[in-house]
């Protein structure tokens, strides 16, 4: 079972119990952070995750769901466009693509566990979206971590 397009909140792993920290938008051009899901942040934590058309397996865009708010789209993006991805994740009007795969062996779940990777021409390694402090960053694997970072996707119903 592959990941499905929709409106999702993304809880940073390890995913255990209730609570947690969620990917949070901080304005166009700013770094995406993680924050608790409370009324003041909740609307900035819903992302429209859409499969790239024509349908490419596991390739998606991640755009803030603004629910009719500010015009324009705020897409997850890498600040620097180097062949080997690095640095923080920020929002941009330029739409970027990401590889999203199920990390829970495709088990049926309304809250799937996923990994998120930048699309890159680089070879010889793998890079994943994870956290460093309260920021979303690119983490090389397997060099810096024992297990790739994961996220729990929680559906948001419009």
Features:
158 residues, mainly beta, two-stranded antiparallel ribbon, 1 helix, protease inhibitor
Structural description of this entry:
The protein is mainly β and 158 residues long. The chain has one domain: Trefoil (Acidic Fibroblast Growth Factor, subunit A) (Trefoil). Helices cover 3% and strands 41% of the residues. The protein contains 1 helix and 12 strands. A 6-stranded antiparallel β-barrel has the order 1-4-5-8-9-12. Strands 2-3 form a two-stranded antiparallel sheet. A hairpin with an 8-residue loop joins strand 2 and strand 3. The chain is globular and about 40 Å long. It starts with 5 loop residues before the first strand and ends with a strand. Homodimer. Pfam families: Inhibitor_I48. Binds and inhibits cysteine proteinases. Inhibits most strongly papain and cathepsin L, more weakly bromelain and cathepsin B while it is completely ineffective against cathepsin H. InterPro entries: Prot_inh_I48_clitocypin. Belongs to the protease inhibitor I48 family.
Structure, briefly:
The chain has 158 residues and is mainly β. The chain is built from 1 helix and 12 strands; from the N terminus they run βββαβββββββββ.
Number of domains: 1
Secondary structure tally: strands: 12
User: Separation of termini?
Assistant: 23 Å
Low-confidence stretches: none
Principal-axes geometry comes out as globular
Strand order of the largest sheet: 1-4-5-8-9-12
What is the helix tally? 1
CATH architecture: Trefoil
| Residue-averaged pLDDT | 87
- Give Rg in angstroms: 15 Å
Q: Kindly identify the CATH topology.
A: Trefoil (Acidic Fibroblast Growth Factor, subunit A)
Strand residue content = 35-45%
Instruction: State the order of secondary-structure elements, H for helix, E for strand.
Output: EEEHEEEEEEEEE
CATH class category: Mainly Beta
Structural class: mainly beta
Helicity, as a percent range: under 10%
Biggest sheet: strands, sense, closure?
Answer: 6 strands, antiparallel, barrel
Function: Binds and inhibits cysteine proteinases. Inhibits most strongly papain and cathepsin L, more weakly bromelain and cathepsin B while it is completely ineffective against cathepsin H.
Keywords: Protease inhibitor, Thiol protease inhibitor
InterPro entries: Prot_inh_I48_clitocypin
Family: Belongs to the protease inhibitor I48 family.
């Amino acid at each position: 079972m592959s990941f499905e397009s929709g409106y999702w909140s993304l809880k940073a792993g390890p995913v255990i119990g209730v609570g947690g920290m969620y990917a949070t938008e901080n304005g166009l051009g700013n770094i995406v952070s993680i924050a608790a899901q409370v009324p003041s942040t909740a609307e900035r934590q819903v992302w429209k995750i859409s499969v790239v058309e024509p349908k490419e397996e596991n390739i998606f865009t991640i755009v803030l769901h603004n629910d009719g708010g500010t015009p324009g789209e705020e897409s997850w993006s890498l600040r620097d466009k180097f062949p080997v991805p690095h640095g923080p994740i920020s929002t941009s009007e330029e739409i970027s693509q990401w590889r999203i795969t199920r990390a829970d062996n495709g088990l049926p779940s309304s809250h799937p566990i996923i990994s998120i990777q930048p699309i890159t021409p680089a070879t010889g390694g793998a890079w994943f979206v994870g956290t460093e402090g309260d920021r979303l960053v690119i983490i090389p694997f397997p060099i810096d971590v024992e297990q790739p970072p994961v996220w729990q996707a929680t559906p948001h119903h419009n």
